[in-house]
Amino acid sequence: MIPRALALAAALWAAPLAAQEAVEIGQGAVLRALDKITGDVTDFDLRPGATVRMGRIEISLGECRYPEGNPAGDAYAYLTVQEEGRETPVFSGWMIASSPALNALDHSRYDVWVLRCITA
User: Each residue of 90-110: pLDDT tens digit?
Assistant: First the structure.
């Protein structure tokens, strides 16, 4: 019974590793931001480590990744969004281009989402 349990545990542990897709790191990301009050929509090209300001928020890019050999594939980027007057970020984490609602910026005035990675 023990060897069978060990084999099951090993298979369960290895499953997430097999499911991970090989990725490439982009040279930046294209983001879109919406000011819900004014209706202004702005697209930004952002390089890793750079920060852009829109109204009362600052958006910083950590990294943008996409499927290996498929730059048109589903991009995801690590973003940090800081609001003026607040010490802690209002958002910090990975955002997926095809499903921004999975890990979205929850802000009353602004929306931010990833469009794609910059590859050249």
Answer: 999 999 999 888 889 999 999
**30 assigned to some structural domain:** yes
pTM: 0.79
Residue with tokens 């209002």: 90
Q: What span, in angstroms and rounded, lies between the C-alpha atoms of 50 and 99? A: 23
For strands 91-96 and 51-54, give the pairing: unpaired
Cβ atoms of 13 and 106 within 8 Å: the answer is no
Within-domain flag for 8: no
**3-state percent breakdown (helix, strand, coil) of the chain, nearest 5:** 20, 45, 35
Range of the domain at 46: 22-118
Burial of 3 (0-12, 13-18, 19+ CB in 10 A): exposed
Number of structural domains (the chain) is 1
